[in-house]
Amino acid sequence: MAAIKVISAGAVKAIIVALAPEFERASGHTLDLNFGTAGAGRDRVKGGEAADLVVLSESIIAGLGDLVKDVTDLGRTVSGVIVREGAAEPDISTPDAYKQSLLKAKSFAYTDPKAGGSGGIMLVEVMKRLGVLDAVNAKAVLCKNGHHVSTTVAEGGAELGTTFISEALPVKGCKVIGTLPGDLHIANTYTAAIHAKAASPDGARAFLDFLTDPSRRARWTAAGLEPAF
């Protein structure tokens, strides 16, 4: 039986963590799960860190070239607007309404783009388009990843936040009030690949097959991801 090392982005953490023990019981393999931002995962792989399965954003996997093989899309998640459970829900029905809600909020949490999180990097471009980046950053609570964004909002550390829904749904006390409206919509596909120098390529393939079994589609959907399989 193999010990399978996984380097993964945080946007798919909840579903992978939920399915991992089931796979271990069914297969006899063990999993070494390592989560971080997609950018951090890219840097680890490019820096030569050993792994068996790599799960990052589609664009980052594509950029890894011959460092990975057997590329498989897993699912897509979208960015949502979050508030603390029980808090007043701002109007986000249109792009302008979302803009005004950003400006009115006393504090706003999102993933620090410097941490390498895809959601934060993409959200900066949205705020630039809206012309509110400087105003928002003046009161921003920059977080290390989407889970941190969600816990920050849930604990009252920020009035409003935006992150991938898949990272917000598992956090108690955090409420997703909707997706980014209209042409502000942010979606990101997460993709798995076997490391070209995997010590346990067969184990990595077995886990990948387990994750993408059609019988588990509903589990991915419940975790805030649109399955690609």
Summarize the structure.
The chain is α/β, with parallel strands linked by helices. It is built from ten helices and ten strands. It has two domains: 3-76 and 189-227, Periplasmic binding protein-like II (D-Maltodextrin-Binding Protein, domain 2, 3-Layer(aba) Sandwich), CATH 3.40.190.10; 77-184, D-Maltodextrin-Binding Protein, domain 2.
List the helices and strands and how they pair.
Elements: E1 3-9, H1 13-27, E2 30-36, H2 38-46, E3 53-57, H3 58-63, E4 68-84, H4 95-104, E5 108-111, H5 118-130, H6 133-137, E6 140-143, H7 146-154, E7 160-164, H8 165-168, E8 174-179, E9 187-195, H9 201-211, H10 217-222, E10 226-227
Parallel strand pairs: 1-2, 1-3, 5-6, 5-7
Antiparallel strand pairs: 3-9, 4-7, 4-8, 4-9, 4-10
Count of domain modules: 2
SS content category: alpha/beta
Task: Using the 3D structure, state the CATH architecture of the largest domain.
Answer: 3-Layer(aba) Sandwich
Rg estimate, integer Å: 18 Å
Principal-axes shape call: elongated
| Biggest sheet overview | 10 strands, mixed
- CATH topology type of the largest domain: D-Maltodextrin-Binding Protein, domain 2
Alpha-carbon distance between the two ends: 27 Å
Segments where pLDDT lies below 50 for 5+ residues? Answer: none
CATH class of the largest domain: Alpha Beta
Beta content comes to 25-35%
> H/E element string?
EHEHEHEHEHHEHEHEEHHE
How much helicity do the residues have? Answer: 25-40%
